[in-house]
Amino acid sequence: MYSKTKHHFKIMKTKLTEEFSFEAAHRILNKRKEYGELHGHTHKVYVTVTGEPDLVVGWLIDQQEFRGIVGRVIKRLDHRYLNEIMEQTTAESIALYLFKEIEKNLAFNNLTLDSVKVCKTTTQAEVSNDRM
């Protein structure tokens, strides 16, 4: 986390990832009929932030504070019918929705939302702030 230089400590860029989960139902209307049927998943969500640790306490953000900020966004989807919240309900669309909503609420502590990964069944979709 810190590398010692000749006269002081140099702060290093650090990433922190926290895991969340939610249960939700949805339908995907596309070429495959089975996706159009109402069904649900357990979604695992990994949220990664980047920043410089506080020199006094050594962390990027208090874990309880981080979990509270992200948890309020995740709670909007938990045990819900996702088609009532977003137009597309693929793993990619859910990751993008969460990225945008979490980013709105994480505007402090000089933190950057690095990525949001959504995992359901065997699919993983990740949205990151890397600009193409």
Describe this structure in words.
There is one protein chain. It is built from three helices and seven strands. It has 132 residues and is α+β, with helices and mostly antiparallel strands. The strands form two sheets. The protein has a five-stranded mixed beta sheet. Strands 1-2 form a two-stranded antiparallel ribbon. Strand 6 and strand 7 form a beta hairpin. The chain has a single domain, classed as 6-pyruvoyl tetrahydropterin synthase/QueD (Tetrahydropterin Synthase, Chain A). The longest helix has 15 residues. 24% of the residues lie in helices and 37% in strands. The N terminus is likely disordered. Helix 2 packs across helix 3.
**Which outline best applies?**
elongated
CATH superfamily: 6-pyruvoyl tetrahydropterin synthase/QueD
Radius of gyration: 18 Å
Distance between the termini: 28 Å
Q: Please give the CATH class.
A: Alpha Beta
Strands, total number: 7
> What structural category do the secondary elements indicate?
alpha+beta
- SSE string: EEEHEHEHEE
Helices and strands, with pairings:
Layout: E1 2-4, E2 9-11, E3 14-26, H1 33-36, E4 39-51, H2 63-75, E5 80-81, H3 91-105, E6 112-120, E7 123-128
Parallel strand pairs: 3-5
Antiparallel strand pairs: 1-2, 3-4, 4-6, 6-7
Summarize the structure in short.
By secondary structure, the protein is of the alpha+beta class. 24% of the residues lie in helices and 37% in strands.
Give short descriptive properties of this protein.
single chain, about 130 residues, alpha+beta, Tetrahydropterin Synthase, Chain A, two-stranded antiparallel sheet, 7 strands
